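[audit] Reproducing an earlier prediction to check determinism. Same input, same settings, fresh worker. If the tokens differ from the archived copy the diff job will pick it up downstream; this log only records the rerun itself.
[audit] input (116 residues):
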Amino acid sequence: MATCRVRSRRRVRSLLIGLVLAVALLRLAVVATPTAQADRVDDAFLNAVKSKGINFPSPQAAIVAGHQVCNELDLGRQKPDVATDVTNSSNLDGYRAGYFVGVSIAAYCPRHHTST
């Protein structure tokens, strides 16, 4: 009977180890998925910005600026006012500043997209 308990404990232990590994792999998959999606969103955003000749010192600086547009809109600022701020704080003309605001909204805060 002692032999059965030893084998049974080993089997339970093996099952528990397998379960822990399965849960760890699932968590890793869940964590990796948003990162992959964020990378695709960032890549699309950077490609759109670059396509209009809007240059930043680094890709990260462009992404931070895009998120800042959303932060300003979250505070209740209006899109034209944010675009004016972009124009005044950069070398972008009104068209490119407005485009940057629009692309930022599409990429990072579609909740601010309104069809007018």
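[audit] rerun output stored. Observation attached for the diff report: DSSP finds four helices and no strands in the chain.
[audit] end
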